[in-house]
Give the backbone structure.
Amino acid sequence: MNNLDVYLKSRHDFVNQFQLLYTYKQLGKVDEMESLLDELYNDLKQEQLFLNAPCRKFVQAVFDYKISVSGFKWTFEIECINDEYYQKNLMISDSILYEIYKIFINHHLYCDDNVQILLRLTVEEEFVTLSISFDHVDVEAKEIYKMFSEYELEIISINEEQCELEFFININELEV
């Protein structure tokens, strides 16, 4: 996908959201308009936090893929209670986050082109946790464990409709 295609795709998505806001305004549906504004603001704020995260290799891979596909709805969340280890821990875990993400994308664990994907990074003093939630699952738990056998993985939920995976990266093991 070239730069113009990327721009047109993002512009199209933005115009659709703006058009919905404008329609709510015209119809006097203030509650719906405020709810959508809050949702859009929170999504954009979290995406901006994700874009600026110090795990650059991982972030670059996510956004390279995000702009190359259509039909996917992406949501991002970053949680960190202490800025002191935020930068350091995400930088240290960058390569592992990247490797996990590449396995996820390359194995197409989903079976639909209209997938909703949530990527959540939780940064703690000794751990970075990557949660990946997606719908339209096309693989069984044992296959997922096999694909990610090198990583500390917990399958939070899995069924035909939705899957949530959590990967735990121990910072102390990486610093040694």
Q: What stands out?
A: The chain has a mean pLDDT of 89. DSSP finds six helices and five strands in the chain. The first strand starts at residue 73 and ends at 80. The helical segments are 3-27, 30-51, 56-68, 83-106, 141-147, 171-175.
